[in-house]
Design goal:
The chain is α/β, with parallel strands linked by helices and 268 residues long. It is built from eight helices and 16 strands. The strands form three sheets. It has an eleven-stranded mixed β-sheet. A hairpin with a 2-residue loop joins strand 2 and strand 3. Helix 1 runs parallel beside helix 2. The termini are close together.
């Protein structure tokens, strides 16, 4: 099991957002003035500085996510600072995927482009594979339970468009098996817990560890060092973990250096 670092960008700045508060308002989503999105953290420290730190610490497979417009230059700078060490997501299509690989991304991360009208658009998915190869593609299966699931015991469904639009695609053994034929990895945010530091979605981590045929990274809700061991146990050592707002480098309480030390102990 690995720790996977992250860089979330909005308007060219590194930020941490509470995932379930994102808006699909194309003008105001994620802006500081938007009442629909809550920021946990914002900094003037460049994305490239975070990227260099991750490189110096030997962390691979982290991701840069562009949340809306105004992030291209910051994302390019991060990839240039750590070529081949970071994945890139946000607005990726079959038309621009190769360009981002050429900028230095190890993989591109895609959600909304391949999910349309509540379903997987196999035509678009195959176009992406044709453009860059499955070995360069990460599918983001970030998911939520549906609002009517009051008891919180039902299935998780893939969500798109800033995590506001539910698809009919359930995250289960069949979906993971089918989509693994077209990608190198999965990235899964537990949207309801994302950015809240309220604990991980244990049943989701367990599902991913049991059924994903390819490497998979979980993100969402980490609140302490104990969650690394919890993910390791629940995922059978097969689920990697991203920590965002809980880290001290993003305004949280968990020392980043402690997480790196844990990672190096697990991956000598």
């Amino acid at each position: 099991m690995k720790f996977r670092p992250c860089i979330d960008l909005h308007a060219g700045q590194v930020k941490q957002i509470i995932g379930s508060t994102l808006s699909d308002d194309k003008q105001n989503a994620l802006s500081a003035s938007a009442s629909h999105a809550s920021e946990n953290f914002s900094t003037d420290r460049p994305a490239s500085s975070y990227a260099r730190t991750y490189q110096n610490d030997g962390l691979t497979g982290g991701h840069v996510i562009m949340l809306g417009p105004g992030n291209v230059e910051a994302a390019k700078a991060a990839l240039a600072a750590y070529p081949g060490g970071l994945q890139i997501g946000g607005g990726i299509t079959a038309e621009n995927a190769k360009e981002w690989i050429d900028y230095g991304a190890s993989h591109v991360i895609v959600t909304s482009y391949v999910f349309r009208n509540g379903e997987i658009d196999m035509g678009r998915l195959k176009c992406l594979v044709d453009a860059i190869g499955k070995e360069k593609l990460v599918l983001d299966l970030s998911c939520r339970r549906k609002p009517e699931d009051a008891e919180g015991k039902g299935p998780y469904f893939v969500v798109t468009d800033r995590w506001q639009t539910y698809t009919d695609v359930e995250v289960n053994e069949e979906t993971l098996r089918t989509l693994s034929a077209y990608c190198d990895e999965f990235l899964v945010h537990g949207v309801e817990n994302e950015g809240k530091r309220c604990g991980i979605l244990e049943d989701l981590v367990e599902l991913l560890g049991k059924y994903s045929p390819v490497p998979v990274t979980y993100a969402g809700g980490v609140k302490g060092m104990e969650d690394l061991e919890r993910v390791k146990s629940l995922g059978g050592g097969r689920v990697d973990l991203t920590i965002g707002s809980a880290l001290d480098c993003f305004g949280g309480d968990i020392p980043y250096d402690d997480v790196v030390a844990w990672h190096k102990k697990e991956n000598p």
